């Protein structure tokens, strides 16, 4: 049902994805670093956020929307579990793509909350999947008793 704990975890996963739009992922550490990175596409303005790359925007919106859609599929637990697992896959690919973009940088920078948001989305989606499985086992055991 919609008031189950997995719905809360899926909502938190969606919020973690969409928080990337307001939280930067990293900051350049000094003004000299900002001046040195003007040729870089990621840290051109000294702040690395979601708007610096169209691939990150697509992955973030896809992951957040998938987690939101999974909330309303409480009648079809197998599909809800598949979409939740796909949301985990999207979050993992977001983390990998972020790692790729950051590894290309030669300058020093400070980490922001935006780097932790996809990891939080993975954790919340995994917890939701766990509780969906648990809910499915309870329903199947009740069906056996009838």
- Which descriptor suits the 3D outline? elongated
Number of domains: 1
Q: Averaged pLDDT, please?
A: 83
Number of strands: 3
Distance between the termini: 21 Å
Helical residues, percent: 55-70%
Content-based structural category: mainly alpha
Rg = 19 Å
Query: How many strands, which pairing sense, and closed or not: the largest β-sheet?
Result: 3 strands, antiparallel
Helix-strand sequence: HEHEHHEH
Low-confidence stretches: none
Query: How many H/I helices?
Result: 5
Strand content: 5-15%
Features:
single chain, 146 residues, mainly alpha, 3-stranded antiparallel β-sheet, 3 strands, 64% helix, elongated
Describe this structure in words.
This protein has five helices and three strands, in the order αβαβααβα. It is mainly alpha-helical and 146 residues long. The chain has one domain. It has helices spanning 5-18, 31-36, 54-71, 77-103, 117-145, and strands spanning 26-28, 47-48, 109-111. Helix 1 (5-18) runs antiparallel to helix 3, helix 1 runs antiparallel to helix 5 and helix 3 (54-71) packs antiparallel against helix 4. The model has no long low-confidence stretch (mean pLDDT 83).
Concise overview:
The protein has 146 residues and is mainly α. The chain is built from 5 helices and 3 strands; from the N terminus they run αβαβααβα.
